[in-house]
Design goal:
Length: about 130
């Protein structure tokens, strides 16, 4: 019996959402798109598409066995928000842009739209 309980506990154990690439990366892309739309007057967020995208992330997390409480704890965590923001800045820098410069964010946004990336699909040029 003890062995069966240990096997069940191992099966129930889930990686933190931050370690689930398909969830965490999509939260990153959504965050970058939001930041670009906030900082760049030439680009708007595709609000309904963005909301649908976020709901799809939640549905995927639920399908992977994460409860709404676990998802909300991840989503609302100040530490996770700071970590995602740091990842976003690193991404912007990796593309050759300054994450603190609105003009650079506009240029990145237009490039993401042009290449139809996940970020680009969440944005539209005005």
């Amino acid at each position: 019996m003890l062995m069966a309980g240990a096997v069940q506990a191992a099966a129930d154990a889930k990686a933190p959402l931050r370690d689930v690439r398909e969830i965490d990366d999509n939260m990153l892309w959504a965050g970058i798109a939001l930041r670009i739309s906030e900082e760049c007057g030439e680009i708007d967020a595709r609000t309904l598409k963005g909301l649908n995208f976020l709901w799809s992330i939640k549905k995927k997390a639920n399908a992977l066995g994460y409860s709404d409480d676990e998802i909300n704890a991840y989503r609302k965590s100040d530490a996770e928000k700071a970590r995602i923001e740091a990842r976003g800045k690193a991404y912007v820098k990796s593309k050759g842009f300054d994450p603190g410069d609105a003009g650079d964010l506009c240029e990145l946004g237009h490039a993401e739209i042009a290449r139809n990336s996940v970020i680009g699909t969440l944005l539209k040029a005005k």
